[in-house]
Each structure stands twice: as structure tokens, then as C-alpha cells.
Amino acid sequence: MSDIENIDPFLGAISNTRNDSDSEEELDRAPEAEQHSETRSARPTVAINYQYKPGVKTHYCCQIDKEIHAEGTVILITNAQKTSDDSGSSFITYTVKVGEEEVKRRYSEFESLRKSLMRLYPTLIVPPIPEKHSFADYATLQGKAKEDVAIIEKRKRMLQSFLNRVSNHPQLSNEHVFHKFLETGVSWNDVLKSRLLSSLPKNILQGSPANLSSSHPSSASSSPTSSTVQQTLLPNPNASQPLKNPDPRFIDSEAFTNKFAYHISQNLEKTNKRTWKRLNDLSNDYAELGAIYNGFSLNEHGELANAIEKVGQAVDSSFMATGSLTSSLEAEFSEPLQEYSQFAQVIKQVLKYRHLKHLQMELTAETLEKQKFNLEVLEKSEQESKRLEEALAKDRGIQDTSIQSTQSNLDGESNENTIGENGHHHEHSQNGDSLTITKSHQKRRSGSKLFSVLSHTIHGIMDVDPEATRRNSIGKTRESIIQLEEAKVTTAEDLKNISASIQEDLDRFQRQKIRDLRDMLLNYAKNHVTWCKKNLSSWEEAKIEVKNVQI
User: Fold this and answer.
1) Do the beta carbons of residue 95 and residue 75 sit within 8 Å?
2) Residue 420 placed within a domain
């Protein structure tokens, strides 16, 4: 791990306050574990030290809040039992104990609690829970995976770890939704339907962290992005889209997280699983071999029979010690290692959220610039249109004056010609013209109806008043620019707060990781020391008995 610790961007001024002498003292205390090995399985195993409380707190929202912040408090899952509901379907319920409080929760409720915390706090590293049963588990156990004792015990330990990690988190531990989960007599379905959780946006990108991180729904309206108009303006970016101006700190964080995830899941976890499996197989082989030696001793007599029997007893002791080693390593090393493999994926999701918010800010700024450019084009078109109208108006004024002068001259000449005509011809002409005008009027009426229909159709296709349309577009664009400028300021402020919150929690996680890995490695070493000492003791006794055989 040293090659990746050197480039760890999470690590600030973090020092390990425990020196090598502490480690030696803890390893020297390993034989004490022998005395308690028989009682270890009677209580839930706490592999990681959960005594790192988030700090002194003087005001509490409820009794559970007070309990979990008390010094030395550890949340325990004391029991797991099969339960059936009214419909007849069965499931496992886990009894959670905090102080004097006890509540029963099923796996799906743990899962919904974690999802709720992730939606409320998208910038925080919410601890993982054990994964659901794989198809391989169901196939191997023929549908009885839910009732398999080993799986249930493992799930108890990992769910207990999840609750204690949340309890020790400086922000998550204060969340009242978490307190309700631990409170006796509280219906979890009612909590999920509460205003706080039901009012959360489905897409966390369409809200501000100030909204999502508040335990009080009333404060949600104080956030700028609570406006429906702004929410519709905020883009939904694609995670695969690169940033134009990425933050170097988070580029390093993403690179380190990817490398950390690879080292844990692809290297360490896989190798550890193989080692654990071989130890488990070795334990089974010791069990078979011990029975063979014991049977073989019955065929001999005297000192040789005693020596063979003692070797068989040493092999039996190795069988028990190796079985105890595999159980301890699973609870105190393999499961925490699995947690950290999941933690790496959680950190990836948190960094992905920040990446999307950064993209959202950049896309909002790009949209704002495009709208400003569009407004500039529209305003130039409007100015050109006004100048053209003014020029046309001047031309029309000159033409109207000339037409009026010409029309006056023509009217004078027409009047003089009309006065000299015959009266009888005039009367006959009037009667004929009247009939012609009536027929012409009827034709015009029918033609006007057809023209009206065509005109209405054409107006629906073509812009009748481009000037009005352009002015309307200018107004809408200006309004959009105002909203986008507000959205740009809001997203920039959000990104600043998100980055600070994520960096703070990454630093906290790094300190937690150092403590946990140190405890895991100490547990790994102590368990092997205990295993070796047990084997040494039994084989020393066998050695003495074998030496007593006279040749």
C-alpha cells in the first residue's frame, strides 16, 4: 500500500499518534484472547474500534441522540430471527439495541435507511451495508440462503458495523431520520412517508445541498434552487462528458480512489479470499487426519500407541485452532476489507456527484453565453428593422405628395369632359352600369370567401408579423438571461460548498481508514500469533511423547 499512500490527496496533516511500543503491547496481550475464545461467539464481534465519537454535544433532539453520543456507546445487533407477516411471507428481522432501547428491523429497512441518507447527504461518504444474496448463494443453498446461519451471522456483524459507522459520523449521527430508525415502536414506513423524505427531489442534481442536507423541511425554501423556474433551467449533464476546467484536487482524488479500489478489490481482497479458503480446507483436512491418527493408535501398544495418539491430539488441536483462526479472520479482517472495497465505490459515487454538479455549472454558463449571443443578434435585427422602417417612411412621404399632385390634375380634366356629354346617353349608361355592378359585387363576395380561407391557412404557416415575433423573442431571451445568471451564481455557490464538504469528508475518511487498517492489521497479526502459540503448545507436548518411544 505504500506506493499509493505517497500520492494520497485525502491526507492532510494526519499523524499516527500510536507508536510501535503500543503495537508490541497489543501483540503481547494476544494470549489473553485464548481465555476468551470460547465466549467470543456468544456476543456480536466488534472488529473495528467504534469509540471514536464525533465530538462533545450538549443539545439533543431526542433520547436516541443522547444515547449514541454518550461516551463508550456501541450499537449492537443482538439477535436475528425468522418472522412472518400477515400475507404469510417470511423474512429475517434483526434486533438492534442502543442502551435500553430495542427495535426490530429487516434488511430492506436498513437498505432504505442508507438510500435516504445518501439522498439527504449526497456530499458525504455514507457507510455501506452488506450486499444482497447473489444468485450463486440461492443456487447453492436451493432457496434457503435467507435462513443460512453463516450468512445471517455475517450480515449481523456488517449491519452492526454500518450502524456504528453512521453513529460515529460527525454529521450523519445528528440526522433525526437515523434516530427514528433506532427508536422503539416507530413505524419505518411512516418515516419514509414523512415530509422531509417525501419532498426530496427525485434527481438530486435539481436541488441544492443546502436543501438536501437539512433536517428541517421548512429551511428548504430558503435555498435559491428551490425555485421551480430555476430547476427547469438547470441541465441534466451526462457523467461521461469531460469538464472544460476541472479542479486538480479532485482529479487527484478520482485517480487515487480508482487505484485504491483496484488494490483492495482486485488484489488484496481476492488473495485474502483464496488464503481464507485454503485455511478452511486445511482445517477440514486436520479434522480428517486427527481421526485417522487416533484410529491408528488403537492398532499399536505401549509407548508407540501413546505417541501416535498424542500426535492425533495435536492434529485435532490444529484443526480447532485453524477453525478459530478462519472465523476470527473473517470477522476481524475479511469483512472490514470487504467494507473498504465497498467504501471505494461509495467515494466514486460522491466524486461523480461533484463532477455532475461541476458540469451543470459549466453547461449553465455555456447556455447563458449562447442566450446573450442570441439576444445580441435579435437586438441587431431589431435595430436594422427600425432603420429600414424609417427609410421607407421617408420614401412613402415623398411618393404620397407626388401622387396627390398628379391626382388633382387628372380630376380637373375629367370634370371638364363629363359636363359636355348628352343627358339621354347618361341615363342609359347609369341603368346598364347598375346591372353590371350588381353581378360584379356577387362575384367579389364569393371570391373573398375563398381568399379568406386561403389567407387563414397561409397565416398559420407564415409569420404574419415578424417584428412582433422578434420583439417577443427579445423579451423572452432577456428573461431567460436573468434566470440563467441567477442559476449560474447559485450553481457556482453550490459547487463551492459541495467541494468543501466532500473534501472535508474525504479527510475524515482518510483518518478513519488509517485507524481501521491499523486495527485490521493488528487483529490479523494477533490471530496468527494466537494460532501459532496454540499449535506450538500442542506439538511440544506431542514431541515429548514421541521422544519417550524406546527404539
Assistant:
1) no
2) no
- With b for 16 or more beta-carbon neighbours within 10 A and e for fewer, the 188-204 pattern comes to beebbeeebbeebbeeb
The pLDDT of residue 177 is above 80:
yes
90 shares its domain with 164: yes
Q: What is the pLDDT of residues 414-445, one digit of tens each?
A: 555 554 555 544 444 455 554 454 555 555 55
| Centroid of chain to Cα 98 | 28
Strands in 3-131 per DSSP E: 76-84, 90-98, 101-106
Cα diameter, the chain: 171
pLDDT, average across residues 253-278: 93
Q: Say what the pLDDT of residue 202 is.
A: 83
- Local structure of residue 212 (DSSP, 8 states): H
Cell 417612411 -> residue:
393
Contact 179, 62 (CB under 8 A): yes
417 belongs to a structural domain: no
DSSP category for residue 422: -
Sort 536 into a burial class: Cβ within 10 Å, 0-12 / 13-18 / 19+: exposed
Count Cα atoms within 13 angstroms, Cβ side, for 534: 25
Rg of the chain taking only CA atoms, in angstroms: 42
Domain that holds residue 99: 58-203
Domain count, the chain: 2
**What CATH number does the domain containing 96 carry?**
3.30.1520.10
Choose among 82, 210, 246: nearest CA to 148: 82
Distance CA 221, CA 218 (A): 6
Ranges of H-type helices in 8-57? 20-28, 32-40
- Amino acid identity of residue 199, one-letter, is S
Query: What pTM, to 2 d.p., does this model score?
Result: 0.76
